[in-house]
Amino acid sequence: MTTTAHDPGAPSADNPGRADIRARTLRRDRWWLAPLVNALGLATFVVYATIRSFWGSAYYVPQYHYLSPFYSPCFSASCVPGSSHFGTFLPEFPPWIPLALLSLPFLLGFRLTCYYYRKSYYRAFWMSPPACAVSEPHGKYTGETRFPLILQNAHRYFFYFAFLISLINTYDMVVAFRSDAPDGTERFGIGLGNLILLVNVIGLWLYTLSCHSCRHITGGRLKHFSKHPVRYKVWTGVSALNTRHMLFAWITIGTLILTDLYIMLVASGTISDLRIVN
Ligand code: FES
């Protein structure tokens, strides 16, 4: 007796295969709205962040120690005095090199390989597919199994760097509570800039800790949660945050732009910082 190999994807009585539908989609709702909004939001952030990262000025307010997150950490001898919280061990940069050269590639990699952003920009820009039940324009699908998309698997490593940079952003936020007094000393102070920096740092931590890789790092590869009660507790917290990861991804896009914009306006003298405690 001979047997034939069964192809689970082949049409059969139980699995008749795909319906022969010529229309791109049968959806009647505004399925194109979400990818359109995503494309506009992501493009706005990329354009703004690129321009500001190469701007090279108005990123630090010496009087209140406000440092833009697009310039942190600033390690170059070109950084304005006071903005290098961890020293200047790099030489002067020509104007076409961003001052946050050491952090920007990792932050970019972290967001580019983020599970949520992947979904978002695959839909918005690649249209692969643009929405559920809407066919994509591409004839072939290789997923993330080949170069360059196989690099998406590096997300976990970008997470480690992003965690470190979130610590640095937290330090920047804390030192900004010191402001210069008229007699040349430093004193405690709170301005609107402090509150904006604080909200931004909280958002960055929520986004970073809600990462899918963080969830796996805290609770993955365990056979028995009962034997690891601390990791189980942490994993439970990260899992709760993880359900809001998309929200945090968008909130931090907004807070990063807002923080940098506010600091740019104060640093350039366009507006004054609204002081609450001097
Ligand atoms: Fe989005 Fe890791 S930052 S999944």
Overview of the structural elements:
With 278 residues, the chain is mostly helical. The protein has one domain. The chain is 46% helix and 5% strand. The chain contains eight helices and six strands. The strands form three sheets. Strands 1-2 form a two-stranded antiparallel ribbon. Strands 3-4 form a two-stranded antiparallel sheet. A hairpin with a 4-residue loop joins strand 1 and strand 2. Helix 2 crosses helix 4, helix 5 packs antiparallel against helix 8 and helix 6 runs antiparallel to helix 7. The N terminus is likely disordered. It binds FE2/S2 (inorganic) cluster. The site of FE2/S2 (inorganic) cluster (FES) has 9 residues, from helix 3, helix 4 and helix 6. This is Succinate dehydrogenase membrane anchor subunit. It comes from Actinomycetospora corticicola.
Write out the distinct hetero groups bound to the structure. FE2/S2 (inorganic) cluster
Number of helices: 8
Radius of gyration: 24 Å
Q: Note the gap between the termini.
A: 91 Å
Low-pLDDT runs of 5+ residues are 1-6
Any idea how many domains? 1
Query: Proportion of β residues?
Result: 5-15%
Q: What's the total count of β strands?
A: 6
Alpha-beta classification:
mainly alpha
Mean pLDDT score: 92
Strand order within the widest sheet?
Answer: 1-2
Order of SSEs, N→C? HEEHHHEEEHHHHE
* Largest sheet entry: 2 strands, antiparallel
Fraction in helix:
40-55%
Dominant shape: globular
